[in-house]
Amino acid sequence: MFDVSWKYDTLREASAQARILVSTSSIEAIKRGSTPKGDVFSTARTAGIIAAKRTGEIIPLCHNIPVDYVSIDFDMKENEILIKSIVKTIWKTGVEMEALTSVAIAALTIYDMLKPIDDNITITEIKLLYKKGGKSDFLQEIEKEIRAGIIVISDSAAAGSREDKSGKIIEQELKKWNIKIESYKILPDEKDLIINELLRLTDQLKLDLVLTTGGTGLGPRDITPEATKEIIEKEIEGIIEAARAYGQRRIPLAMLSRAIAGVRGKTLIINMPGSPRAAKEYMDVLFPAVLHSFKMIEGGGH
To answer: Do 170 and 272 contact (CB within 8 A), yes or no?
Structure first.
């Protein structure tokens, strides 16, 4: 199985379709309710719903997903039956296999119920109609190049006694989203130095994004949030709430982060923890959805 433990929950939906060719007499029998095994569509619908809920048991490498909604509908034509399913969940991975499995089992159920009166049944296709949800839905086209700066805040990294890992992780993740990094600096935990660097990146370089890492904990020299608060004009509580909630589901220590996020001018500033693991988690949960903020900052609305 693929590891999806790093993903976050989103509303996911998929729809699939199956087509069955049958004789005209079978269509008439269904309409009259005279098929030998009973109500064809009610039985097939029940089978399809059960199949969607148990896909992880049938397909070896599928994840067990908490299915929140399944609908199965039928459309009869002269000599064919169309089966359409819609499956929804709020989870880490998609439900296209659940949608496909549901119509496949519904089609096989119809085959079984009609075979006593029809020797020419053919299941001609099973296909995915659409799927949506997950990170890709939040990746919008950015009209301009995003320019970013990274500030690593650590006494030991600034002194050269500890390797900077979290800043490098942030740098690698930003490159995945084609964000241009124009400044990368390592500073000690000194409030005035942090404030001056934030002002340089926002007011002078006018970068779009500034990410800090380190100094967000409870240590006596952890003052990154205090320095950030002094220069931001609007705080964005939701960004850090999302990151902390994501981290809390993985390690209880996430509750101890005091990171903040906000805007100064047209620059988005986000504090991230100094732990390499925590920095990676912040990048996983915030991107690409946080990139929508640039459209809002420019006056583009929601």
So the answer is: yes
Question: Which residues have a catalytic role annotated?
Answer: 112
Say what the pTM is.
0.78
Which option is the CATH number for 139-297: 3.40.190.120, 3.65.10.10, 3.40.50.10860, 3.40.980.10? Answer: 3.40.980.10
Instruction: Report the topology of domain 10-136.
Output: Alpha-Beta Plaits (3.30.70)
pLDDT digits (tens, 9 = 90+) for 77-101: 989 999 999 999 998 899 999 999 9
For 279-289, how does the pLDDT look when each residue is reduced to its tens digit (9 = 90+)?
999 999 999 88
Show me where the domains of the chain are located.
10-136, 139-297
- The label of the residue with tokens 């979290």 reads 166
